[in-house]
Amino acid sequence: MEKIIVNGGNRLKGEVSVSGAKNAAVAILPAVLLCDEICRIENVPSISDVNVIVRILYELGASVKVIDNSTVEIDPSGINSFMLPASMSTKMRASSYFIGAMLGRFNRAKVAPPGGCDFGVRPIDQHIKGFETLGATVTIDGGMVNAYAKELIGGSVYLDKVSVGATVNIMLAAVKAKGLTVIENAAREPHIVDLANFLNSMGADIMGAGTNVIKIRGVNYLHSTTYSIIPDQIEAGTYMIAAAITGGELLIKNVIPKHLESISAKLEEVGATIEEFDEAVRVKMDGRPKCCNVLTMPHPGFPTDMQPQMTTLLALADGVSIMTEGVWDNRFKYVDQLTLMGAKVKVDGKVAVITGVEFLSAAPVRATDLRAGAAMILAGLAADGQTEIDNIEFIDRGYDNIVEKLSAVGADIKRREFIDPNERRAAI
Ligand code: EPZ
Known about the structure:
The chain is an alpha/beta fold. Helix content is about 30%, strand content about 25%. It contains 15 helices and 24 strands. It has helices at about 20-30, 50-60, 85-90, 95-105, 125-135, 165-175, 190-200, 235-245, 260-270, 305-315, 335-340, 370-380, 395-400, 400-405, 420-425; strands at about 1-5, 15, 40, 65-70, 70-75, 85, 110, 135-140, 145-150, 155-160, 180-185, 205, 215, 225-230, 250-255, 275, 280-285, 295, 320-325, 345-350, 350-355, 365, 385-390, 410-415. It has a four-stranded mixed beta sheet with strand order 22-23-1-24. The protein has a four-stranded mixed beta sheet with strand order 2-15-17-16, with helices on one face. The longest helix has 13 residues, at about 235-245. The protein is globular and about 65 Å long. The structure holds ligand EPZ.
């Protein structure tokens, strides 16, 4: 199996270019199902979650042309199945978007419940509430989510919780429903806006994306489009923290600074210098970060997907910081790994008290989920010695060429193949 090996202590200097947004790509690609012609999607990140979705579209009968490593052309006309077996759907959370997309196209969907990072319970009750508002009957039996509607008719749904997934899924089911659908208490993340812009580029009629009220007027036909996915806010934020945690200076290119506002504000609070350009941010850090308190919230709050990375930076801060997880029930599983490297973090439910230490020391650690894996890399960049990171398949789900991008700006980081002793025995 592969591990990532990081020899810490290098200050990162240079330029990093951010890829397309994972959480936009995994919503836009299933949405192609709703198109009546061919779609060309550009700035697609080269990550395993995207590869899985493209594979699913192909297995469902779409014809997929890979133009280059960030551009695909998809003709969904050959898709005639509304079923997604567990073998395809349990690999990630975003497979749940096939329920909304298939419902929107076939008035039917039979999808095994989605997988995704383990942050405790990840229900889809708000997704189902939305589908039922549109007139669908949804049952969960035999380990499958079954949705059926004689006809989808627009309606108003008030989300009990701000949910990215439910907002995406209801939008997908509503885009060809009869009449007007209103989603209230909708998620406002940049990837929600990107999905709405993609659908509108095909002739959909969606207004208000990016606010907490989204209105979707159903249309009958979606024509072809060429659409470029927005840059990844969380990938960009991860490299911003890489600059800060190594006391370096990075110009992070191909970003939308507005999407990074809450991250920039927190990094300035701990002493980093942030310079904004039209499509780039420069992050510079001299000396040790100051402590600060962080509460993760739905956009435009501090993103929960930046929580492990920020906690890792604060583990080295001068003073005590409080990290409060405002979105997920249990998103501190990685703290045990950070503690192996000398961090002093006390977790009580959704709150972590972080007592900054002057140094982290290298240790063999593992990625417990996608963003936690990125946090282990950040800890390794700052730690004394050689850190070995296992379970790196989590990292490859959401970071495009992270080893290459970091080594290009001075990190001593590489992938190494390890033969598991059990595998060795089996091989003999
Ligand atoms: C999306 O997950 C992202 N994944 C997550 O990013 C991200 O952490 C999350 O949004 C919050 O921003 C993708 O976009 C593929 P939610 P999602 O529905 O849609 C509760 C990453 O690292 N809830 O916004 O699953 C839920 O339990 C990943 O890129 C319900 O109660 O998140 C949570 O407490 C990790 N009922 C809260 O809402 C529902 O029906 C927010 O969940 C749905 C959600």
